[in-house]
Amino acid sequence: MNELRELLPLLWPLLLIQLALIVFALLDLRQRAATRGPKWVWVLVIIFVNIIGPIIYFVVGRNDA
After folding, report:
1. What is the Cα–Cα distance from 65 to 48, expressed in whole angstroms?
2. What is the mean pLDDT of the chain?
3. Which of 1, 12, 24, 42 has the highest Cβ tally under 10 A?
């Protein structure tokens, strides 16, 4: 239990970054008319692939054409 209390200050920034990435990716996905692939798949990737999911969406999923 003591180890967890020592790690919490280190984990909070990561949790906040992950939450911010998820929120921004979902908001961006909602506003886009077209994506590379179905939007429901991108929702699953963004939510369930932790920190890497939103990054994958921003790099690969957005259709900027």
Report:
1. 27
2. 88
3. 42
Q: How far apart are CA 7 and CA 9, in angstroms?
A: 6
- Type of residue at 27: L
User: Percent of the chain at pLDDT above 70?
Assistant: 95
Q: Tell me how far the alpha carbon of residue 13 is from its chain's centroid.
A: 15
Please list the residues that pair with 62 across neighbouring strands. Answer: 35
Report how far residue 59's alpha carbon sits from residue 56's, in angstroms, rounded to the nearest whole number. Answer: 5
Phi, psi torsion values for 22, nearest 5 degrees: -65, -45
* pTM for this prediction: 0.78
φ/ψ (deg, to 5) at 34: -135, 145
**Where do runs of H (alpha helix) occur along the chain?**
2-31, 39-48, 52-56
